[in-house]
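From the shared-data thread, chain only:
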Amino acid sequence: MAKILVVEDDLNLLATLKYNLLKESYNAVTAVDGAEALDVARREKPDLIILDVMLPRLSGFEVCRILRKEMTVPILMLTAKTEEVDKIVGLEIGADDYMTKPFSMRELLARLGAMLRRADMAEVQPAAKPESLKIGDLEIDMARHQASCRALPLELSPKEFDLLVFLARNKGFVFSREQLLDKVWDYDYAGETRTVDVHIRWLRQKIETDPAHPRQLLTVRGAGYKLEG
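Structure, as C-alpha cells:
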C-alpha cells in the first residue's frame, strides 16, 4: 500500500483528498503547513507527496526545494494560480508534476497512479541483472537509479532520470513533445507540452558543457528532441 503525504491548508480540500485516497486503498498522511510537511515527510518517508504551493510558514516551493535535496520522492504540486511562471518554477525546483485548481479527482488519481508506477519501476530489483548505458560522457545505471556525466554524479529528479533513460535507450531517434509526454509521463497531459521543454532545459544544464549550445541533447526544429552520442 503506497503511502501518500498530502500537504494542504484548505481543510475541506484536505479532507476530500484524504477520503478519496483512502477509498483507493492508499495510506494517506497529512500536513497543513510547510514546516509540518517537512517534519512529516522526514518521519513517514512517503512514496509520493501532493504539495500545495500556497502554504503557511513555508511555501510549497520552499518545501519542494528542501525535500528534493534530501529525497527522490515524486512530488505533485497543486496551485490555484494560472500563471505559467508558477508552474515552471515548481518544475524547475524539482517537482515531477503539477495540477491547477480546480481539478478533477479522477485525473488526480490517474496521475498519482502513473507517478507511482514510474517510481516502482525505478526501484532496484536485487535479483535483476544491472542494466547500464554509456553514451558519450553520459553513464546511466538503471539498477541503481544513478547517472553521471564526465565521471561526476548527476543530481536528477525522478522525472529527469526517466526522461534521460528514455532518450538514451532510443539514442538518435527524434520524439515530439506529445510522444515524450505519453512515453515518459505515462498519461495524456492535455496539451501541457511546456513541461517537456522545462525538463529538457534542466537536463541540459546538468549534462551539457554549454547548455546554450547543446551537443548531445538536441532540438530538432519542428519535430522534437533527441539524444546523440
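The domain at 3-122 is CATH 3.40.50.2300 (Rossmann fold).
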